């Protein structure tokens, strides 16, 4: 699935974008595109920090001695600046090769995940941080909307030919969050199950079958392993961030700790989905 299959009638318009100023100038230069791409990546890194700090704080990790409101206020200008640079550089890169974006599943996934990430960051994490975890009705609605949009992005990611393997990055991020912030028991159990899965898949796909001779079987095993791993990580994540925990020190307790932890997790996963999908724009799916 990509924009070319969803909106086939706009193909002539998309093709014409390559002639829109300043695309011809960028194409003719040997250094402009690399510079634009560098600023795009720097903005993405800056945005990552601006997302992680308040999200981790809502999850009870990171700068716990500082109030969530203070962290959110500090990173807000950086987030806006990074978003502006991302949009501008993204538009310039898109004008240079619009058909690549039009025919790549990764770009569609990135746009859907970006909508979810913006909803989580500005509609959920921001208000929760400013209100120390207290959630209004609007915040809860935004949280549900962000979750639905993010799940849609993941479903497209996991089912798109040429891009589906990229969903493994998102699973890894979820795994790292659970392992880093989960209880000791969770780390031991999840780590042991992960090791068993990795060893089992390795034996089956390289000992029982041969990737070159049994490619379709091996790929099907890998696909189901990925799906089961996603459910496994999701289950442990829900357990860790919904279960009751000891009360935080006075002054640091969140009004709604469960929602705060889940909102932080949602924002992190949504933004990493954006980054993971972006990596696969140039690698998978569609005709150029």
Write up this protein.
The protein is mainly alpha-helical and about 290 residues long. It has helices spanning about 5, 10-15, 25-30, 30-60, 70-95, 100, 105-130, 135-160, 165-180, 185-210, 215-240, 255-280. The chain has one domain (about 5-280). The protein is built from 12 helices and no strands.
- Elements, N to C (H/E): HHHHHHHHHHHH
Q: Please give the domain count.
A: 1
Structural class computed from helices and strand pairing: mainly alpha
Anisotropy-based shape: globular
Determine the fraction of residues in helical runs and give it as a percent range. Answer: over 70%
Low-confidence segments, given as residue ranges, are: none
Q: Radius of gyration from the CA trace?
A: 21 Å
What is the chains' assembly state?
A: single chain
Distance between the termini: 15 Å
Task: Please tell me the overall pLDDT.
Answer: 85
Question: Which features would summarize this protein structure in a list?
Answer:
288 residues; mainly alpha
Characterize this entry briefly.
The protein is an all-alpha fold and 288 residues long. It is built from twelve helices and no strands.
List the helices and strands and how they pair.
Layout: H1 3-6, H2 11-16, H3 23-28, H4 32-58, H5 68-96, H6 98-102, H7 105-130, H8 137-159, H9 167-181, H10 184-208, H11 215-242, H12 257-279
């Amino acid at each position: 699935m990509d924009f070319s299959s969803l909106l086939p009638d706009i193909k002539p318009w998309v093709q014409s974008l390559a002639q829109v100023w300043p695309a011809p100038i960028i194409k003719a230069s040997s250094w402009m595109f690399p510079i634009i791409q560098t600023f795009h990546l720097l903005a993405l890194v800056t945005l990552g920090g601006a997302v992680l700090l308040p999200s981790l704080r809502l999850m009870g990790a990171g700068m716990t001695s500082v109030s969530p409101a203070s962290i959110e206020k500090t990173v807000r200008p950086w987030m806006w600046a990074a978003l502006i640079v991302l949009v501008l550089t993204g538009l310039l890169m898109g004008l240079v090769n619009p058909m690549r974006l039009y025919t790549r599943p990764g770009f569609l996934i990135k746009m859907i995940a970006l909508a979810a990430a913006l909803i989580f960051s500005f509609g959920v994490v921001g208000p929760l941080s400013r209100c120390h975890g207290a959630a209004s009705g609007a915040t809860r609605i935004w949280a549900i909307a962000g979750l639905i949009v993010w799940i849609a992005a993941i479903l497209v990611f996991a089912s798109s030919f040429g891009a589906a393997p990229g969903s493994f990055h998102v699973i890894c991020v979820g795994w790292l969050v659970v392992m880093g912030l989960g209880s000791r028991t969770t780390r031991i159990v999840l780590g042991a199950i992960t090791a068993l899965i990795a060893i089992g898949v390795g034996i089956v796909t390289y000992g029982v079958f041969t990737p070159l001779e049994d490619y379709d079987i091996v790929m099907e095993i890998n696909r189901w392993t990925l799906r089961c791993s996603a459910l496994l990580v999701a289950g442990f994540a829900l357990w860790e961030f919904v279960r009751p925990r000891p009360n935080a020190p006075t002054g640091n307790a969140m009004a709604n700790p469960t929602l705060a932890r889940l909102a932080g997790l949602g924002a992190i996963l949504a933004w990493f989905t954006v980054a993971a999908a972006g990596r696969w724009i140039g690698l998978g799916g569609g005709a150029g």
